[in-house]
Amino acid sequence: MSLKPDKKIIFWGKIAVFAGLLAYIGYVVRQQTFDWATVRNQLRGVDHPEQWLAGLFLLTPVNWGFEALKWKILLRRLNETSFWEAYRGVLAGVSLGFALPAQLGDTAGRVLSLRNHQVEAVGASLVSGGMQFYVAILMGTGAWAHYLTIVPERNNSAGQWLLVLLIGLSVGGIVFGLFRRPLVYWLERRPTLQRFSSYWNVAGLYSNVEIGSALGMATLRYVVFSIQFYFALRAVGIQLTPGISASGIGMVFLVKTITPAFNLLSDLGVREAAALWVFSPFDQVSIPVLLTATLTLWVANILTPVLVGLIWVWKLKWKA
Fold it and tell me: Is 25 inside a domain boundary?
């Protein structure tokens, strides 16, 4: 396979960053030797780990169900879609997103699942992803603010500036939402961008009620996969105070959200590196056990939906 020079740079850049993440994980793990005996000993002390694991996996369809509801709401301006059709499109997007860069795979899976208005649906998919991104930023801002109070060594000038940046992004999202229609109309009048206007025109059509409903689904989904993360931690015997758990989980999802998708193994590696950095100040957290929890969460929330979504990827109607 031959690639253009710019694509080669992007490809090898992703390889380098992904290798860097793996190297960081390897470095931390070397500080506390990972062995299955440690994990087994930890698991023996957990009361009914199967109940936590059952809760984790049972919430997986609920997690992606809220994403399907959000997608269904955003498609109303284009195409009335049933919940089941929206769900299939979301799972197809998850599967394609496992192999294709950035949001390309997710968008392709959703758009190709529709019978019509596929071009306009690209904009709806971008709006959907943008909403989930904003919710992660907003929740992550509160998580980082609390994290600085419980981990004083991270409460330095860099940490304070990061908090200011996150607050600015949170406020910026509100401003963008209020002025989204004038912005869309302004973009339409740019000669160099007019040919792409059909992709984002739908963003200016949504009412405030629709935006609020979709944001509500995004928030509920965030709450669900935060609970799943907590269940994964409890399943391997990691018990932290509610404040530490909430801020730590919020920080991990914030890092995972703002870090570009490297898509060699979906977000595998990003979540693990973030979790190691976030929870490393707490002595009661064993590194091998923490990695077990994050890998379990990845299997439940990513790998399982990807395998199910492959069924719908096979049935997609590919069009130019």
Answer: yes
Q: How far is CA 250 from CA 54, 103, 167, 178, 274, in A?
A: 22, 21, 15, 26, 11
User: Total structural domains in the chain?
Assistant: 1
Beta bridge partners of 313: none
Nearest to 159 by CA among 142, 144, 174: 144
Tens-digit pLDDT profile for residues 20-68:
655 655 665 565 445 566 666 766 767 788 889 999 999 999 999 999 9
133: its two tokens: 């991104």
Length of the chain, in residues:
320
The Cα-based distances of 256 to 151, 246, 271, 273, 313 in angstroms read 20, 15, 6, 9, 25
Degrees to nearest 5, angle at CA 223 with 221 and 229: 105
Q: Max alpha carbon distance in the chain (Å)?
A: 65
Q: Give the integer Cα–Cα distance in Å for 284 and 32.
A: 13
Contacts of 24 (CB under 8 A, 6+ apart): 273, 276
In a domain, 1, yes or no: no
- Cα atoms found within 13 Å of the Cα of residue 91, Cβ hemisphere only: 25
Over residues 261-287, the pLDDT tens digits come to 444 445 666 778 888 888 888 877 777
In this prediction, residue 148 carries a pLDDT of 93
Q: 4 lies in a domain?
A: no
Distance CA 139, CA 261 (A): 20
Domain span including residue 144: 10-314
Q: Which residues contact 93 (CB under 8 A, 6 or more apart)?
A: 105, 106, 107, 108, 109, 110, 113, 125, 309
Any domain includes 69: yes
Distance between CA atoms of residues 283 and 244, nearest Å: 13
